[in-house]
Amino acid sequence: MLNRRRLLTIGGLAGGALVIPAVRGITPDAGPAPRQAAAPHGHGVTNAAAAVKPAVTPFSVPMPLMPEARPNARSSDTDFYSIPIQPGTADILPGLSTPVLTYGGDFLAPMIRARTGRGVRAAFRNQLEHPTNIHLHGGHTRAAHDGHPMDLIAPGATREYEYDNTQQGASLWYHDHSHHTEAEHVYRGLAGFYLIDDPAENYLGLPSGEFDVPIMLRDAQFDAKGGLVMIDPFAPSTLLANGKPQPYFQVAARKYRFRLLNAALEYTFALNLDGVTVTQVGSDGGLLSGPLTREKVTLTPGERVDIVVDFSRVPVGSQVVLSDDKGGAVLRFDVVRTARDSSDLPPVLRQMPDTRSATTEREVVLSSQISETSATGLINGKPFDPERVDFRVRRGSTEIWRIVNGDGDFGFLHNLHTHLVHFRALDRDGAPPTADDAGLKDTIAIPPGKSVRVRMTFPNRLGRYMFHCHFLAHSAIGMMAQMEVVA
Ligand code: C2O
Ligand code: CU
To answer: pLDDT tens digit string along 326-344?
Structure first.
């Protein structure tokens, strides 16, 4: 077995101004952090060696709300958006300004609020100096609009993506998916919420409006001037909630719905709420069949969880801290006032789609190949090849995939994200799935050396779709494959 520190040294040697992805460090519990070129496009991610622990006074800034995108036009059945992709600066750390990449100019990307049954057309204008593209993570999107890694928006060009929103309500997100550069682009800020509200779910009476609060979680590493440095697992990381380190958020003593997204490259959040009950109502693909009481919620990169927290259970004046096992306090909720609460938390949330029996079973093995000079991510023994179709899937069919983490020796954690389709976890090495696997998932964790079986029924779409590890530094170096859905 290769020594992790040794690998980190290799990463250090390989760092600097390379043009190809090179080995970065290895995280003991988070998998390899294979580093892309330190700054392949010269846009400001500096060498990780420069990472410092920024001075942050806990709970000294309010958590901002995600800004909502405004449609620039509406037709009878479609909302039209126009969003530039451009460099910008962010006020993340006190007194410092951080160069970032943005959707629309601000570090907090505009949140698109779509509605089931109503289309969205989003025109993205690429004002960066290099190609980018958009993938709607969790969307049942037509293949031509899915943001294939080779289907890019050239600098200066505009691309209109069409989303039909034929699926039930869910918390999705959109982000860059450009081949080899997705990890760095997402890390620098190219990620935003995309919520689908389903009018058919309104009768449930879940907390809504100002009491429905999306929270984007991630980590970041900084140099002394506040610039982002590419993640180094041995350097100090700063956890961010809606772009701020350890903010506070003032709440009323009533129920809230929080939609948590882990948008980090490779940081896994293991969250608890200070003994206050957390009730999970949704996961990646929308509502659960019924509420689930959770003591701890684990989110690997790309996963979402919708929770309801009832702050009327604690006295006004209380402070409740959302904490991560490894990184400590993430966010403090300050219960500052009473409020009327007409929202509800019904015992049945939705009817899950029928389980059909599978006609095909497949195995998907995630692994890494590490040499003295390079790291490659593999699926079923092969690195990603955009010219190769790995699986052919029949439209509308039901399949079972056994997803195996073949990196037991290295101790790398991976997850698997499928485009187009949501799945349900069947078992983990024969044992029942965990609470983190509940509901309809599109991203699922597989610990080193372990496996999980999932069942999925493909929607009525044709074409090529990706599946990959959502530790984006892993997919960037090859841990990605594609399926073609055929008639
Ligand atoms: Cu969120 Cu293929 O990614
Ligand atoms: Cu991985």
So the answer is: 999 999 999 999 999 999 9
